[in-house]
Structure to design on (472 residues):
């Protein structure tokens, strides 16, 4: 990899040496590289890297690798250009700003992922799954129940975690019923993405908008009705295709581990603290999240110290499986965070930030938000999210920071959050479920119902324009 990096920089030096660098940039100013060969190289590097990301399911290469490499190449090219033109510290300040944005997002997500892992380790999600499996509902009822749960859990636990949980339920219930599992997974993806659109904790895109201070925590709630419509429309259409069969009950019985409800309470307290730090103290939300993590660590210390008292001398406990009798370890929950996803965010933020620093995002902003208008641009963001993934698209919008009304910012938050539902590869929830329900939930199976999801997408936009007209 380093050999390839050296070749790229050697090529860049040759390009710089053979191309006129008549930039209208004084010391302290950013240079416009949009029409220079270095800018074109950076675009090609990013496109190739993102193509590798989209082919993750085929190549089985983790998505963080190509974008991290692309980020190094793009910023290396930028630093080379500025160094050869004698402009010091400008590029350094720009990349430090990008790293600061990533650091806030990283710490916030690390805490959230740790709490989710702790709740999973305490068997909260597993108990919920078993109760649903043993409830004796028909497949159509399970279709709606998992959809409702996905919609209302995702604003707290994020759309990816919620989708994986609900998928485990439908796979366990559906067994070999391919049609039911496929439809239920599509429903879960749409519901989880829609539910995540009206909460800062529901999706990375809403979290970025909130952390940027553009939309306040309580203001996301005005997207509740449009989000419901986004899910209900395709769900109602798919309802008639869901089999009416009754699934077999399971004899499985799982009990919560000690302290499970306290972990949930600490998570809710942590969310409240993060919101309070942001809204009232005007501090980054991740400060409140880290405070909550410290409390979880204190509670984990208590669980570990009192473990033998509760488990060591009870002969009945010896009958439990090994995972039930192991003491709570907070650092195992930290280690189980989605590190590939966290590193992917690093690569994306630095790649998009680098292209923006070169001047490309200003060109896109001019075309989309000024020439075409903000409503058209924000609707198109949703379609782009279905193809490219909503995280780089939303970060690009936040980097461009176009001047538009509060209603338009809410619109782009909605479209970026739910637009990815139109294709299975358009959201993290869809990609994850293609792996978890491999052979049952597929790209083409999802594509078959994309028209219904697109109807819900259009209906949710219309509902927002109608209900929240006073915000435009």
């Amino acid at each position: 990899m380093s050999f390839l990096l050296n070749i790229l920089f050697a090529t860049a030096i040759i390009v710089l040496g053979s191309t006129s660098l008549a930039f209208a940039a004084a010391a302290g100013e950013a240079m416009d590289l949009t029409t220079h060969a270095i800018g074109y190289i950076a675009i090609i590097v990013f496109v190739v890297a993102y193509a590798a990301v989209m082919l993750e399911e085929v190549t089985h290469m983790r998505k963080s690798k190509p974008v991290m490499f692309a980020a190094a190449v793009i910023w290396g090219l930028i630093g080379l250009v500025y160094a050869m033109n004698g402009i010091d510290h400008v590029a350094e300040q720009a990349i430090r700003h990008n790293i600061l944005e990533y650091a806030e997002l990283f710490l916030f997500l690390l805490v959230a992922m740790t709490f989710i892992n702790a709740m999973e380790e305490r068997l909260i999600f597993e108990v919920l799954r078993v109760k649903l499996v043993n409830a004796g509902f028909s497949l159509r009822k399970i279709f709606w129940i998992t959809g409702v749960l996905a919609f209302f859990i995702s604003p707290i636990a994020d759309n990816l975690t919620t989708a994986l949980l609900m998928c485990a339920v439908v796979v366990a219930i559906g067994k070999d019923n391919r049609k039911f599992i496929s439809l239920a997974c599509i429903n879960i993806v749409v519901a989880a993405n829609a539910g995540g659109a009206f909460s800062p904790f529901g999706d990375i895109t809403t979290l970025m908008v909130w952390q940027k201070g553009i939309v306040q925590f309580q203001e996301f709630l005005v997207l509740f009705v449009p989000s419901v419509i986004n899910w209900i429309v395709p769900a109602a259409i798919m309802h008639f295709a869901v089999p009416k069969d009754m699934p077999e009950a399971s004899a499985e019985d799982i009990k919560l581990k000690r302290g499970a409800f306290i972990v949930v309470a600490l998570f809710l307290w942590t969310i409240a603290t993060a919101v309070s730090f942001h809204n009232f103290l005007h501090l980054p939300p991740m400060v409140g999240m880290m405070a909550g993590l410290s409390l979880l660590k204190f509670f984990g210390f208590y669980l570990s110290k009192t473990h033998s008292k509760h488990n060591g001398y009870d002969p009945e406990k010896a009958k439990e499986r090994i995972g039930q009798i192991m003491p709570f370890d907070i650092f195992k929950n930290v280690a189980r965070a989605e590190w590939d996803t966290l590193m992917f965010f690093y690569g994306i933020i630095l790649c998009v930030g680098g292209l923006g620093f070169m001047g490309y995002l200003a060109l896109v902003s001019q075309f989309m938000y000024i020439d075409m208008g903000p409503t058209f641009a924000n609707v198109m963001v949703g379609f782009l999210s279905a193809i490219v993934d909503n995280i780089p698209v939303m970060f690009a919008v936040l980097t461009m920071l176009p001047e538009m009304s509060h209603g338009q910012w809410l619109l782009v938050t909605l479209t970026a959050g739910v637009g990815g539902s139109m294709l299975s590869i358009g959201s993290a929830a869809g990609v994850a479920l293609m792996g978890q329900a491999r052979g049952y939930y597929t790209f083409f199976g999802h594509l078959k119902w994309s028209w219904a999801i697109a109807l819900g997408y259009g209906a949710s936009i219309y509902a927002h324009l109608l209900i929240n007209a006073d915000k435009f």
About this structure: Residues 124-254+338-472 form one domain. The two ends are 49 Å apart (CA to CA). DSSP finds 24 helices and no strands in the chain. Confidence is low (pLDDT under 50) at residues 17-27, 315-323.
